[in-house]
Amino acid sequence: MDKNGHEHFDEARKLAVREYNRSISSGEIGYLPSLEGILKDTEIVAQVDLGLIEIPLKKTIGTYTHLRSLSFARNFMPLIETEFREKWSSLCEAHLHEGIRDAIKVYEYMNWFYVIEGNKRVSVLKYFDAYSISAKVTRLIPKLDENSKDSRLYYEFLKFNKITNLYSIWFSKEGSFDKLLKLFDNFNPENSYFDNKYKYFEVYIYNTFRKIYLSYGGDRLKITTGDAFLEYAKIYGMPKKANEEKLTLRMKEFLKELEVLSKDEGIDLSTELLEVSPNKMINTLTSLVIPKKKLKVAFAYARTIEGSGWTYSHELGRLHLEKVLGDQITTGYIENVPENSDAYKMLKILANAGNDIIFTTSPIYLNSTLKCALEFPQVRFFNCSEAHPYTHVSNYYGRTYEPRFLTGIIAGSMTKDNIIGYVATSPTPEVISSINAFALGAKMVNPYAKVKVAYTNEWNSRLKFTDAGSRLIKEGADIICNRTLEVSHPVSTDFGVYSMLCTIDKERGVPDKYLATPIWNWGIFYERILKNILNNTFKTIVDMFSNNPKLINFWWGIDTGVVDIFYSKELVPPETQKLVNLMKKMIMNNAYHPFTGPIYDRDGNLRINNEETASFEQILSMDWFVENVESI
């Protein structure tokens, strides 16, 4: 038999008492928040009549007056009886038989709604877990407080809301509203009968995502549903339609990434070579591979081995693996993997081919690698980038700022015009730290040296590197870092290098002498990682499969041999060679750090104090340039 209004009221009041007691035991006020108290010391700069709109009940969290707030627990369930019982029960009966139609009246403040009239209507609808209610809304806009993240976020929301008229989405990170707006640029719903794409997104896509996300325990995480959706869209793109089956299949593994994101436990950096124990056998492998079988390893290359120095350097690493590990492994590779989202299809082919470990050798593959890793959690994926690692994808790279510092010493000692050019891809933290280290090395031996930077905005284009070099020559550079090789050089065959630090023949506008370059020895990295997996002594890999919330980023330096420096013993002056060799030994022995203060940025701000050194975390997030760097 169906319950009547009074019976529903009794159930609602039990929920209220339970919530009130929970709040009190947690040290919180047990009643509804009241906007009167919240606004006591707040400067409201504008009141805006938004008219009659449909508002989400999940964002209706309080009442306007303190006195009325005492009638409800924090979950909006009724605490008092008296005349409340009859009125609440009557509204409940009306909702069950014909629905609550009358609009309520609310204030919107900081994207939350506080009821002026209609508290009992909200209470009844929340009891029945309704989604929204019609409301006459007045927006109260507080004065922008630049020192308050919440205030800055709200002003970002105001811009977003003006365009979309959506209220149900909120983010915890600044810039996220703009990111979602950008996703809407190319968003065209498949349902052509729905003329408002923003409302379509909210009703059919976002709410479907929210339902599945919360069903898997998303409400336990310290991020908003909006944060979670934006991470999902980063990997899978903006859905054009809601596919509950596909979302459900993906959510379990995806939530593991979100758990790490929400805990914000930081990253464990592996900066030293892993020790290898020769005493363990293959049949004690972790769940990475089937016992007593060869480890099957695949490499995904951008471009071709013959046409790309970067790809060639990784191919040298793969060949090194086959030489040192012999019949313990089998390796394979694919070339010309698309440098866009289509890379996922190629990586999926490798995963379906039974590979135990897949190395994707370009930063541009990170999203595709993560997407594939979420689908194949039994495969271990590594992406070659300095980016933030994930639970399902480890990152590996070299501390390139170390050899860049040494090449900067050579450039600073050999420039005649004190203008040194630097060709860079794009201003990511890894690139910025390398530029800064190079500039600091030049300044160490030449206080007058200036470093001018030209960007290619493409990570592996010889043509764009050449064009950027030409721009720097016009700027007066007599030495350029990362100038494309125009003649064959032994370092290309040995290490896959296709650009070097070189002097410039200004009359012809071409490189004159090739002086130095950082070099990669990927074989050392690949060998150490795989030996530890094969010997079951790879603790960091085991940790990745545990519940350890920290992520692993392999970031090895000159001391490991993964990165090093090549310089011409014929062209670099002997005294400069002595200094470079001395500084290299000091870096390897931790006797000197390239980022040793005092270091000022180009705006004159002290970034690293005297006799202090930058932490690894500071270097991995570097977004400023030292004082002798100029971008063109």
Automatic annotation (TrEMBL):
InterPro entries according to UniProt: ABC-Purine-Binding (IPR052910), PnrA-like (IPR003760)
Keywords: Signal
Coiled-coil residue spans: none
Domain ABC transporter substrate-binding protein PnrA-like: 295-588
Keyword Signal: yes
Record-linked PANTHER family: ABC TRANSPORTER SUBSTRATE-BINDING PROTEIN (PTHR43208)
Protein name: BMP family ABC transporter substrate-binding protein
